[in-house]
Amino acid sequence: MGSDCLFCRIVAGEIPATVVRETETTLAFRDIDPKAPVHVLVIPKEHYADVATLAQGDPALAADVLATSAAVAEDEGLLGDGFRLMFNTGGYGGQEVFHVHAHLLGGAPLGPMLARNLA
Ligand code: 5GP
Ligand code: ZN
């Protein structure tokens, strides 16, 4: 992937981001358009398009993304009041950037899981 992918370019340092945590395999940085007082994106440094591809291709790396997300949640003081961890996936999921990313959201009550009940 690389130069065509926005988040690969952030990993490469070609596009600036406010990084809050970095490990050997993952990067966590603040969303450019936050939807909550805390809105951090957590990604594997290696390119996978979405969470299904990641989980099937490298389950240990998927676990790294979860572990980094939990560490950031702790750093941001979210463990007491709670938070939401979300992977938008594909068209129906509303995914816009096709480098898998967990949205870590918190710092205020986040409301219902979805704006409308679609069931
Ligand atoms: P998606 O809709 O794919 O689940 O989420 C993509 C997220 O990436 C959005 O919340 C959007 O605000 C964020 N985003 C898009 N471009 C950039 C960028 O250049 N830098 C950062 N930090 N976040 C971005
Ligand atoms: Zn990428």
Which ligands does the model contain, each kind named once?
guanosine-5'-monophosphate, zinc ion
What's the overall average pLDDT, rounded?
Answer: 97
Placed side by side, the strands forming the largest sheet appear as 1-2-3-5-4
- Judged by helices, strands and strand pairing, the structural class is alpha+beta
Number of helices: 4
For the sheet with most strands, the description reads: 5 strands, antiparallel
Q: N-to-C terminal Cα separation, in Å?
A: 37 Å
Strand-and-helix sequence, N→C?
HEEEHHEHE
Shape: globular
Extract low-pLDDT stretches: none
Strand content: 15-25%
Number of strands: 5
Helix share bin: 25-40%
Return Rg in Å. Answer: 14 Å
Can you give a write-up of this model?
This protein is α+β, with helices and mostly antiparallel strands. The protein contains four helices and five strands; from the N terminus they run αβββααβαβ. The chain has helices at 6-11, 51-57, 59-75, 90-93; strands at 19-22, 26-30, 38-44, 83-86, 102-106. It has a five-stranded antiparallel sheet with strand order 1-2-3-5-4, covered by helices on one side. Strand 2 and strand 3 form a beta hairpin. The protein starts with 5 loop residues before the first helix and ends in a 13-residue tail after the last strand. The structure holds guanosine-5'-monophosphate and zinc ion. Residues 1, 5, 7-8, 47, 99 line the site of zinc ion.
